[in-house]
Amino acid sequence: MTIDAKTELYGIIGNPVAHSLSPLMHNAAFAALGLNKAYLAFPVTDIAAALNGLKALGIRGASVTIPHKQAVISYLDTIDPVAEKIGAVNTLVVRDSALHGLNTDWIGANRALGKIVRLKGSHILLLGAGGSARAIGFGLLEAGAKVTVANRTSEKAAALAADLGCPWVPLEAASKIEGDALVNATSVGMAPHTDQIPFPAKALINFPVVMDIVYSPLETKLLAAARVARCTVIDGLEMLLYQGAAQFEIWTGMTAPLAVMRQTLFSLLPKP
Ligand code: NAP
Q1: pTM
Q2: In terms of domains, do 154 and 45 share one?
Q3: How many domains does the chain divide into?
Q4: Which of 126, 132, 136, 269 to mutate to test the pocket of ligand 1 (most atoms within 8 A of CB)?
């Protein structure tokens, strides 16, 4: 791809961002479709200055990551209604010096799970009550699913469940629940603690489908146990892929080249 005077620029703003997989994924997608666009990583501490910079330089869009996903909201001109409910924005569109914010994490999770499970009317056990669980929970409700939240810290489970208007249980009681799918949105099983599992292996038979959003490693202990229990498994690459594909589609108005994006992510993620 040649960068010239007409190249349209996108990027990710966060801190740190040096580890981000988004630049390689998005640049591969732009190249696959022959688009004169480029995507860079911007380590940002001063979010207000960075957003003014995006507008002043004519940068077309950006991903937003930790620690700016909440702080960015007060600088937006418009916000997508679901992103507003979640209270976090991971995608910016810059048009005519105005900033529009969206959240594609929930879209990514819904697309990943929705390929296997008919979300409307389904019952999903959601493990975790952090930032990802919050986005996924609101997204599942958007799709018409019924959600039960389970989390190690009961106060956080109760607070998220109150916001979602759904039931919750302490994590240790979650094995008594049955449903159409279990989604792990805790960080349990993530490297270096790959020997940990957030849910008892024996109780996985209560769920025909198990999705883990942890992507480092791709084959978590939870997913390995779910395969033994003959569940259909969805690994963390899928949500990562579809949240990026949704960003690509928002920015370009074109269908994302999923195969290229998946292959790029797969080549970057640690395997066992
Ligand atoms: P977060 O806001 O820090 O939340 C962490 C969650 O994990 C909390 O619910 C926490 O429970 C729980 N947890 C942590 N250690 C635990 C333990 N030892 N036992 C039981 N529960 C434990 O993190 P996040 O941003 O939501 O991210 C969660 C995971 O999702 C990370 O691994 C991240 O890499 C991954 N992720 C994947 C994608 C994707 O696209 N695939 C996107 C975003 C994030 P407490 O409330 O009790 O502390």
Answers
A1: 0.96
A2: no
A3: 2
A4: 132
Domain extent at residue 28: 8-103+240-268
Q: Is 55 a catalytic residue?
A: no
Helices (H) and strands (E) in the chain, counts: 9, 12
**Angle at CA of residue 152, ends 243 and 181, nearest 5°:** 50
Q: Which residues pair with 48 in a beta bridge?
A: none
Residue 1 resides in a domain: no
Cβ(41)–Cβ(11) under 8 Å?
yes
Dist. CA 98–CA 1, nearest whole Å: 29
Q: Which of 187, 194, 215, 219 to mutate to test the pocket of ligand 1 (most atoms within 8 A of CB)?
A: 187
Of ligand 1's listed atoms, the one at least distance from the Cα of 186 is 7
Per residue in 55-83, pLDDT (tens digit) is 999 999 999 999 999 999 999 999 999 99
Ligand 1 atom 43 nearest Cα: 132
